[in-house]
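BUG-230 | component: ligand-complex export | severity: low

The export step for 2'-deoxycytidine-5'-monophosphate jobs runs without errors, but we want the raw record kept on the ticket for reference. Input record follows.
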Amino acid sequence: MTIEVPVITIDGPSGSGKGTICQLLAKHLGYHYLDSGALYRLLGLAARRHGIALDDVEALAVLAAHLDIAFDTTDKGVKVRLEGEDVSRDIRTEDAGADASKVAAVPAVRDALLHRQRVFVQAPGLVADGRDMGTVVFPLAQVKIFLDASPEVRAERRYKQLIDKGESVNLAALVEQVRARDERDRTREVSPLVPAHDAVVIDSSSMAIEEVLNSVLLIVSQRGIPAWGL
Ligand code: DC
């Protein structure tokens, strides 16, 4: 008899709060966490470092298949490594996000990264964060959430994060960047950012993080998903 490992997918645009919710949920349940966006960010960074153009589809696919990456869990969170080097900060810039969105639109890249994402399914369970977790990567997931928020609210959240980090940013420019990235992610031909037909859609525009987490936990418990972290 095989025991099914529970998978909870949370998809949505950047700034919807899904990264925070996924990490809190994974901690609460004692599950593993897959940050699939980090894979695309790492690929964009690797391409830049190896001098590969972001529209060189063949070279990007080869790079994706051989990407030397590691996620190390430490007391201070997850350290992301590219070819042995800690690049946790480098992959979080606005430019790295824009690069990730470009390489993520390449079908051969998505194919190459599919298997790498599926190996994260390990007992006692997985919380998967991304854009196509519920539609393409884990179509049989037991719980699928699509977390959304208005572009203005998402840009404002990002603005606060960047100001807190001491960076100088322009809110109007951020709203435009958010809209441009949304447009690219939602209209691309492969794995566009859309809710799975069986996903529960939550609009977090006027919700606090705790409210969103409680809503997700309620859905998880209603589906009888076991928790190990309590
Ligand atoms: O979640 P994030 O901001 O780290 O994602 C960066 C980019 O990667 C985002 O613009 C779209 C892309 N992405 C994707 O296409 N599919 C995923 N499963 C995760 C991210």
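Assignee comment: Attached the raw record above. The longest helix spans residues 171-187.
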